[in-house]
Design brief:
This protein is of the alpha/beta class. 26% of the residues lie in helices and 9% in strands. The chain has one domain. The longest helix has 52 residues.
């Protein structure tokens, strides 16, 4: 009886064809997955932008940027200049996370119980704050060097406390003094923060007359101050993070929590104080500390505007238009369209 089978050459041809088909199909599958991730990222930013609007409707101003990098959100200090936490903390009620913001409310300041409650808030996973193209929606080690409201062990044992992260940053404007300018942890105590803030104070003080973003240190920006128009002014966008630092938290622009005060963890700029632009970049292995917007997406990043819209901004776009969209009162952006 004759036996039928494949020859070695026929088998190799079949394997080669299958390999070729896989090489053609897998990139298409990955592109489809990335498109879905980018859409989810856009939805996150749309929710955040709408939360900024609702915050304005409720309190008469966009979320304040808080005090500085040593500070995080405090549940008993309202939504204005006395609130040390930044926008990520202050919009929680407007993304259905009021319970997280209330952790520790009513407890005495300076107690271990209060500190642990605040850590619990900062250990809440907020899915809206994470881009699925970059990293998992989970907790990451806190490795900051100064956190005045967290338990002391979080500083004494770096990495022992797990906290949330934000892949998004508020638009702090296009007049950035950083570096070498006024980067500071903020006041040394709650009492000091409630007192007078001097512009040249070593612990903090931006010159508010120069600031032209939407959320920055102790900001109380109103929609009437967005002279360029809400449809032409950035609200919140994706921030650049080196690919080697997605998980460790050992990079200066990603070492705190999503609820932190004014810092490059939660604020980014589109320009420098000398008028130069700070264009966006795609994440890479470059670990040089940056103040740019950026993302893990190929081709560009998602940016929300103050009218609630979200647009995909190309890395190769006009850097001057990007710079102008960071300022709320340049009165030039319309001419650059």
């Amino acid at each position: 009886m004759a036996r039928h089978g494949f020859s070695l050459i026929e088998l190799l041809i079949v394997i080669a064809i299958i390999s070729l088909l896989l090489q053609m199909i897998l990139p298409a599958v990955e592109m489809s997955r990335e498109a879905a991730r980018r859409t989810q990222c856009q939805n996150n930013l749309r929710q955040i932008a709408l939360a900024f609007q609702n915050h304005h409707d409720t309190y008469g101003h966009y979320p304040t940027g808080g005090w500085g990098w040593a500070w995080i959100g405090h549940p008993n200090r309202g939504y204005g200049e006395k609130q040390p936490g930044g926008w990520g903390y202050n919009i929680l009620p407007f993304i259905e996370e009021q319970a997280v913001r209330d952790f520790g409310a009513g407890l005495a300041d300076g107690t271990d119980e209060k500190a642990e409650a605040i850590l619990k808030a900062n250990s809440a996973i907020i899915g809206t704050y994470n881009c699925p193209s970059r990293r998992l929606n989970t907790l990451y080690p806190y490795v900051g060097t100064w956190a005045l409201l967290l338990p002391k062990r979080c500083i004494d044992e770096p990495g022992s406390c797990k906290v949330n992260r934000s892949d998004y940053a508020a638009n702090a404007g296009n007049i950035n003094h950083w570096p070498p300018g006024k980067r500071g942890p903020g006041p040394v105590s709650l009492a000091a923060g409630d007192g007078a803030w001097e512009e040249d104070w070593i612990f903090g003080g931006l010159d508010h007359a120069e600031q032209n973003g939407v959320s920055y240190q102790r900001s109380l920006v109103r929609v009437a101050q967005i002279i360029d128009g809400t449809s032409q002014t950035y609200c919140v966008g994706e921030k650049l993070v080196p690919t080697t630092m997605y998980k460790s938290g050992r990079w200066g622009g990603d070492d705190s929590t999503a609820f932190g005060g004014h810092d490059i963890d939660v604020n980014r700029w589109t320009g420098m104080s000398n008028g130069g632009s700070i264009p966006p970049f795609q994440d890479s292995k470059n670990e040089k500390q940056r103040t740019e917007f950026g993302s893990a997406h190929p081709g560009g990043l998602n940016m929300s505007f103050c009218d609630g819209s979200v647009r995909f901004i190309s890395y190769d776009g006009d850097p001057e238009i990007h710079r102008l969209r960071g300022g709320r009162d340049d009165e030039k952006v319309m001419l650059q369209r």
